[in-house]
Every structure is written in C-alpha cells, then in structure tokens.
Specification:
single chain; alpha+beta; Heat Shock Protein 90; Ribosomal Protein S5, domain 2; formyl-coa transferase, domain 3; 8-stranded mixed sheet; elongated; binds adenosine-5'-triphosphate; binds magnesium ion; endonuclease; DNA damage; DNA mismatch repair protein MutL; mismatched DNA binding; MutL_C_regsub
C-alpha cells in the first residue's frame, strides 16, 4: 500500500504561508506593498494586540473589480505579471500572486474594495482560505482589508512569536522603514487605539526627519552619485553623529527596502578612523536602477535581491560615501580650541605651556618585548605601552615637534620619543575628567532657558523617559513633550556646551533599558562625553593646544589607553634609538 499523497490546496497554502508570513509585520509589509502597487497616496493601518487579534488597512488606491475580489485570495493569482519576461522589468512590489492567499490561509479575512466610476463597492470574507461570503456594500474608492485571529489555525506559529511588545515594535519599525521609500505617500498608524505614526506626503529628507527625529537635520550629509544609468542618493550621518548599533542603516533598491550584505563593510571602510570603535553611522540610501539590472525573485520575503553586477553597486556605494565624507566641512579651529581649553584639574598655578614642559619625573614604562616593527631587525622594540594602568606622571613630555599624518603628535620626553594619537589621547583626558566630576559630584547643572527638543521614534522616547530618574542622578533632567519628542530641561557642566543632545542620545542608546549600577553609569557617561568631545583625526590643532593636550595627558591616571582600550601613545625609547643607530 503506497504512502504518498498529494497535499490538499489548503495545506499547500499554509506551508507556503510559513515562508511569507512570519508574523503580523510581514502581513503589514505585504498589504502596504499591495496598496502602493494600487497607487495609493494615503494608507491607514490599525493593529490590535500586535496584529494578532486584528489588522485593518485601508488605502485610496485604484481598488478591485467585483470579479477580481474572489480571485485575489487565490494562490498564483496576480494582476502584475502575465508572462515570464515581465519579471525582467518589474516595477511593482508584488508579482507572485501569493501574499493574500497565504494570509487568507492563516487568518480570517475580509476584503472590501471599490473602483472609481462604479455605483457600489464589494466585500468578500474568507475562512481557511475559502470565500465564505460575497456582497455589495456602499461605494467608496480604494481597498479595506481586515484580518482577524491571525494564526488561529496554526497555533505553533503563534507560540513562536515574541512578546506582544516586541511584535508591536517590529510592526512600527516595518511601517517606518517602508514609509521612507515613498515619502509622497501619507501614512497613519494606530496601535491599540493610539496614533503612533502620522505622516503627510513630504520631501524625502523631511520624511527621514519625521521618523528619526528633527535632531538629525544638521548631521546628515547628502549623497548623490550616478554611473551607467544607476543612481544612488540619500543621506549618511556626519562622523559626529552615530549610533551604537547598525539598526539605523537603511538601503533601498527601486523603493524596496533590502538587506545589502556588503554595505556594513563599505561603510566601515569609508568612515574608518573618523568614528570610534563600536560606532555606526546613520544611512538612508536609495538606489535607482533599470529593472532588468536586478532579479527580485530570489528571497521568499523579497528581502534580498540579486544584482546583474554587484561590483557596480558596491563601487557606487563606496564612491558616493567616500566623496561626501571627504568634502564635508572640517571642524573649525575655534571649535577645536574650545574643546581643548577646558580647565585642567590638578594643575595648580600657571600652566606650563610652550616648549618647556618638563615636570621633573622621568617615566619608567613597561616594555612589551615581542612587539617589533617589521623590516627592522629583531631586538629593537617599538613599545606599545602596557595595558595595566600606569601611575601619574608616567608620561612626561618635554618638547613636541608638531603633528604628522594629521593625526599623530611627535613628542620628546626624558626617556624617548612618543607618538601620540591626538584623538584617543584627548578621549582619555576627557574620560578621566568627566569620571572624576561624576564621582565627586564636582559639576554644576544649568537649567536651560530654552529646553533642547529631541525628536526620536516613539519607542526611543519611551525608553528615554524610563531612564528619567537615572538621568536625574547625573544632572540631566528630561521631560516628555509629545509623541516621540522629549525635552532636555537641565544639563550638567561636564558635557561640552553644544554637545548635550548628541551626548545624551548616545548615553541613552548605550544604556537602553538595562539597569546600570552607579559606577557603570558614570563610566558609560564619561565614555560618551569623551567620544563626542574629543578632537578627531585630521582636525587642525595649534602648537599651543598640542602642548596643553600633552600636559593634560601626562596628568591622567592611565595615559596610555583610550577609554575603549585603543592605545593613545607608543614609545620609541632613547635606548632603542641608540641601538638602531649602533651607538650602543
Ligand atoms: N490594496 C489593493 N488594491 C488593489 N488591488 C489589490 C490590493 N491588494 C491586492 N490587490 C490585487 O490582488 C492581487 C493579489 O495580491 P497578492 O498580494 O496576493 O499578490 P501580488 O501582489 O500580485 O504578488 P505578491 O504575492 O508577490 O505580493 C494583486 O495582484 C492585485 O491585483
Ligand atoms: Mg502583493
């Protein structure tokens, strides 16, 4: 007796739904794409219980005819392609004719739709993928789809879903990302009765700010390049504005949000040293290319696509980012001066600026025997300083000889030549200063006459407000304003003026909702201030300021490492030099 049977169409649909419908957010994606394909300019979405109890989406698109309604929930039924060749110039989001069939197989569905010029509209209802009713309803133009009891017949899938809050967040994120690609379309999203997104049609740049916060406005650099019929445009953040995860990098190809596997590497290469480690720039980048340059039919949820020439795309991305970073305004000298001219704690009386910087004590710094320069005979060590904290005055510069490669300060001390990274060194200085201020509560707070408004996503604002008390302990007072907007009312003196917003945002980002002990909190904040206020590679620094920087570094508890563990200085001892030149 044979054991093989053909699966029933219902079961086939449920299996297929597993690939397309991961959760409510994948339904939102499919439905919004359908609305966009129907040329809607206004899309309203409503979810209850993260979409598991109810999803309602209405659009003002072209609608469907009476005969099309029962067909739209059938598998492989589509109005978007007719023959295989159509796939080569696809400009619609959908083409497989399976989304609605999949959704219908795992939920109860009601679809109402009307077309212009008609007298009435029509509605169908489905259960287990089968049409259970069809009727006429009062006329309107567009489509309204209601989904109830998602996964009622596939309880295992339901069990795999994350918490409701997690799913709600995914839904919001999905809408936000999709709306970036179509700024000319208005979106309204009501979650459990609360409006969480309300976007009118607007220019693309404004759309980015509407979603990710007005505070990004002055920190975005426009990217625009074109080659061989492929255009790349959008925005990346200035190196002074970044996040601690890759979550704010978005790529679109012909308006479709996709995962670009080479993007992370390219961004990293382009920003390089401009960003501290663990920092990720924002990116909102849109490719426009002829439809026959891509194959969209490679991923069940169309998250990835195949390019005819991946090298052209990655090359254009590299060129676009590189160009704008190279030409973006360097930090002004005055700004530099301000950053460096913070008071020097622990130095009494006149500070010893200029050439005579000897403070008396010669350093004895530990060696790292096996670190040798390639090409130079072994035994001559270029010593990276020890990672164990060194004592005060371990590094005592006497003279400096300026900056090489726009980054490294050359300084002479009693015991050798030091090469100092201006960025990491300044980070170390600010880190220790801020940490000390925080521990000793040696800072003042200032109530701002005009509070700083920070616009962010609703969930970021909620997260920030849940940290309100913790922030108050370190001199920062924030308040809710509306939706995704919060106000900073009071700021502490240890944050550099003008850097409040980005430093606080950075701190919130690192902290997220986890609870930090006081000590960790001080440490995190000190790192954020250090990162945000330190001079960068390539920043112009005057002789006078170099001297000041070196002096302040010599007063650090651990002058040899930046707060993130990168070296701030390396030493070529007098003895090494003498050995190199066969003097000893
Ligand atoms: N909001 C809508 N307005 C007008 N027509 C719609 C709408 N949603 C669906 N349709 C019609 O129903 C058909 C089936 O939709 P469905 O999403 O299942 O497939 P598709 O969009 O063609 O392809 P894919 O499975 O790749 O999304 C569409 O081709 C379209 O003709
Ligand atoms: Mg579709």
């Amino acid at each position: 007796m044979g054991i093989i049977q053909t699966l029933s169409p219902e079961l086939i649909n449920q299996i297929a739904a597993g690939e397309v419908i991961e959760s409510a957010h994948s339904i939102l994606k499919e439905l919004i794409e359908n609305s966009l394909d129907a040329k809607a300019t206004k899309i309203e979405v409503l979810t209850e219980n993260a979409g598991l109890s109810r999803i309602l989406i209405s659009d003002n698109g072209v609608g469907m005819a009476r005969e099309d309604l029962p067909l739209c929930v059938k598998r492989y039924a589509t109005s978007k392609i007719h023959k295989f060749q159509d796939l080569e110039h696809i400009f619609t989001f959908g083409f497989r004719g399976e989304a609605l069939a999949s959704i219908a197989s795992v939920s109860k569905l009601s679809i109402a739709s009307g077309m212009e010029g008609e007298r009435v509209a029509y509605e169908i209802k489905t259960e287990d993928g089968k049409v259970t009713s069809e009727k006429e309803i009062p006329h309107f133009v567009g489509t309204r789809i209601e989904i109830t009891d998602l996964f009622y017949n596939t309880p295992v899938r339901r069990k795999f879903l994350k918490t409701e809050i997690g799913e709600e967040k995914k839904n919001r994120t999905r809408l936000q990302i999709m709306s970036l690609a179509v700024p000319n379309v208005g979106f309204r999203y009501v979650q459990n009765g609360k409006v969480v997104l309300n976007l009118n049609p607007e220019p693309a740049f404004e759309r980015v700010l509407s979603i990710y916060g007005e505070n990004l406005r002055d920190h975005l650099l426009a990217v625009s390049v074109e080659r061989n019929g492929i255009r790349l445009h959008g925005w990346i953040s200035h190196p002074d504005f970044y996040k601690s995860s890759r979550m704010s990098q978005f790529f679109f190809v012909n308006q479709r949000s996709i995962e670009l596997k080479f993007s992370a590497q390219i961004l990293k290469r382009c920003y390089g040293e401009l960003l501290p480690s663990g920092a990720f720039p924002y990116a909102f980048l849109f490719f426009e290319l002829p439809a026959n340059f891509i194959d969209v039919n490679v991923h069940p949820q169309k998250k990835e696509i195949r390019f005819l020439s991946e090298d052209t795309i990655s090359g254009l991305l590299f060129q676009g980012i590189q160009e704008v970073l190279r030409t973006s305004t360097p930090v002004e000298f005055l700004e530099m001066r301000r950053r460096l001219s913070m008071p020097i704690p622990y130095v009494h009386g006149e500070s010893n600026l200029g050439e005579e910087m000897g403070l008396g004590l010669a350093a004895t710094l530990p060696y790292r025997e096996h670190f040798s320069l390639t090409g130079i005979s072994p035994g001559i060590n270029l010593n990276l300083l020890s990672e164990t904290p060194t004592k005060h005055h371990a590094f005592v510069p006497k003279k400096h000889y300026g900056i090489i490669f726009e980054t490294f300060i050359l300084a002479e001390a009693e015991d050798g030549l030091y090469i100092i990274d201006q960025h990491t060194a300044h980070e170390r200085i600010r880190y220790e200063e801020v940490l000390r201020d925080l521990k000793e509560k040696a800072y003042k707070t200032q109530v701002l006459l005009t509070p700083i408004r920070i616009e962010m996503t609703i969930e970021e604002a909620e997260e920030a407000l849940s940290s309100k008390e913790a922030l108050a302990e370190i001199g920062i007072s924030i308040e809710p304003f509306s939706g995704g907007t919060i106000l900073i009312r009071e700021v502490p003196s240890y944050i550099d003026p003008g850097k409040e917003q980005e430093t606080i945002l950075d701190f919130l980002e690192r902290r997220k909702t986890r609870h930090l002990e006081e000590k960790q909190m001080f440490d995190e904040m000190a790192k954020c201030v250090a990162c945000r206020s330190a001079i960068k590679k390539g920043d112009m620094v005057s002789d006078h300021l170099i001297a000041e920087l070196l002096q302040r570094l010599s007063f650090c508890e651990n002058p040899s490492l930046c707060p993130h563990g990168r070296p701030t200085l390396i030493k070529l001892s007098r003895q090494d030099l003498e050995k190199m030149f066969h003097r000893i």
